[in-house]
């Protein structure tokens, strides 16, 4: 069986300046890239696979079950930082 792309919410936190917060609130997505490039994005918080994604996965895998949202316990990696690596993969895949 090949790989299946799975979308999930990963709780993160980042220390921002007031200007960065204002830019983010105004929809500036360049600040998000900068946060990742600077290694300031830290895994921390509510992480889960939403119910609608779980249902889709169960359908693809032919699993007859009702999981609802699946909580992801990230406690063992809380505090880890996330950095961008250009792997040449198209984001829309």
Nutshell version of this structure?
The chain has about 90 residues and is an alpha+beta fold. The protein is about 30% helix and about 10% strand. It contains three helices and five strands.
Question: What topology does this entry show?
Answer:
Layout: E1 12-13, H1 18-25, H2 30-37, E2 41-43, E3 48-49, H3 51-60, E4 70-71, E5 81-82
Antiparallel strand pairs: 1-2, 2-5, 3-4
Overview of the structural elements:
This protein has three helices and five strands. The chain is an alpha+beta fold and 93 residues long. Strands 1-2-5 form a three-stranded antiparallel β-sheet, with no helix packed on it. The radius of gyration is 16 Å and the shape is elongated. It has helices at residues 18-25, 30-37, 51-60, and strands at 12-13, 41-43, 48-49, 70-71, 81-82.
> SSE string, helix = H, strand = E?
EHHEEHEE
Strand content: 5-15%
* Residue share in helix: 25-40%
Q: Structural class given helices, strands, pairing?
A: alpha+beta
Strand order of the largest sheet: 1-2-5
Q: Uncertain spans, ≥5 residues at pLDDT below 50?
A: none
**What's the count of strands?**
5
> Which sheet architecture does the biggest sheet show?
3 strands, antiparallel
The first-to-last residue Cα distance is 18 Å
Q: How would you sum up the global shape?
A: elongated
Oligomer status: single chain
Count of the separate structural domains: 1
Number of helices: 3
Radius of gyration: 16 Å
Q: Report the mean per-residue pLDDT as an integer.
A: 87
């Amino acid at each position: 069986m090949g790989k299946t792309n799975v979308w999930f919410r990963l709780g993160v936190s980042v220390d921002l300046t007031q200007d960065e917060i204002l830019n983010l609130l105004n929809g500036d997505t360049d600040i998000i890239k900068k946060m990742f490039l600077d290694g300031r994005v830290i895994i921390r918080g509510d992480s889960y696979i939403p119910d609608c994604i779980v249902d889709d996965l169960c359908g693809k895998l032919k699993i007859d079950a009702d999981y609802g949202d699946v909580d992801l316990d990230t406690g063992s990696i809380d505090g880890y930082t996330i950095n961008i690596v250009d792997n040449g993969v198209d984001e829309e895949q």
